[in-house]
Amino acid sequence: MKPNSKGVARVVILALALSGLIPGPAPGETPAFQEYQVKAAFLYNFAKFVEWPSEAFASPESPMVLVILGSNPFGDALKNLRGKTVNGRQLVVRMAESVEDVDPSHILYVGESEKGKLSHILKTAEKRNILTVGDSEGFAQRGGVINMLTEGSRVVIEVNPEAAQRARLTVSSKLLALARIVRAGRR
């Protein structure tokens, strides 16, 4: 029996809140959907559920680098990632204005402002073993590895396994079980 993706997503969000990545409501407050705090937490957790080829890191001590390309919709939500580690590697978050400025990086969030350059960005990232993540309609169908879509007050994950394979990334079956699987040009 396949797990109910809505139920699993709620459990993941609850776990993120309990881990401190998503602040919980103050006593007496109703929980509010904070889209980019949830998405920032998902970026962190994607790093835990994806494997990179060994040559993606200069050394065993090299950090895991998350780059935000283009406009930054996360605001202060990225502060929650400071000091975190992923599989023994320090997580470093930085901003870039062009795809030429993303090296080194392991996770590349492509902002909405880069929509017109998406084909070039995805081809460049694929050659560098970079996990590409976006949150715009059609991102995964156009060749991005992971897309975070907002539906109502929840985030739905799409994964394009073919794009992951081209980038020589291995996506955990646990993440795939939570996601909608998409292929280039279709869901």
What global shape is seen?
globular
What is the second-level CATH architecture? 3-Layer(aba) Sandwich
**Uncertain segments of ≥5 residues (pLDDT<50)?**
1-8, 13-32
The span between the termini is 22 Å
Helix/strand-derived category reads alpha/beta
Based on CA atoms alone, the radius of gyration comes out at 16 Å
Strand order of the largest sheet: 3-4-2-5-6-7-8-10
Q: What can be said about the biggest beta sheet?
A: 8 strands, mixed
CATH domain fold name: Rossmann fold
Element-by-element helix/strand order: HHEEEEEHEEEHEHE
**How many domains, as an integer?**
1
Would you report the number of β strands? Answer: 10
Averaged pLDDT:
84
Percent strand equals 15-25%
Count of alpha and pi helical runs = 5
Q: Helicity level, as a percent range?
A: 25-40%
Q: In CATH's first tier, which class applies?
A: Alpha Beta
Task: Lay out the secondary structure.
Layout: H1 5-18, H2 35-48, E1 50-51, E2 64-69, E3 85-86, E4 89-96, E5 107-110, H3 118-127, E6 131-134, E7 146-151, E8 154-159, H4 161-166, E9 170-171, H5 173-178, E10 180-181
Parallel strand pairs: 2-4, 2-5, 5-6, 6-7, 8-10
Antiparallel strand pairs: 1-9, 3-4, 7-8
